[in-house]
Amino acid sequence: MSEDQNTDVPPNHLSIDPRSAFYSEEVLSRDVGIRFNGVEKTNVHEYNVAEGWVRVEVPTAKDRRGNPMVVKLSGTVEPFFR
Length: 82
What we know:
3-stranded antiparallel β-sheet, 4-stranded antiparallel β-sheet, mainly beta, 12% helix, 2 helices
């Protein structure tokens, strides 16, 4: 019973970048949503609930390797499964 309750809570730290140590394909396949400061965000690249930050992608900027640039924003982070 307690195992089912744990699977309904998204992890504390998650990234969509496969090169990251916090990447989890199993969790991402469940469609994780992020509510940041009360507003649902769709461009979140990485988040950390304990430290209260998200990294969001800047739509037009790319780094020298062609990856999207990200900006770190601080606030209240609430992950949820859709």
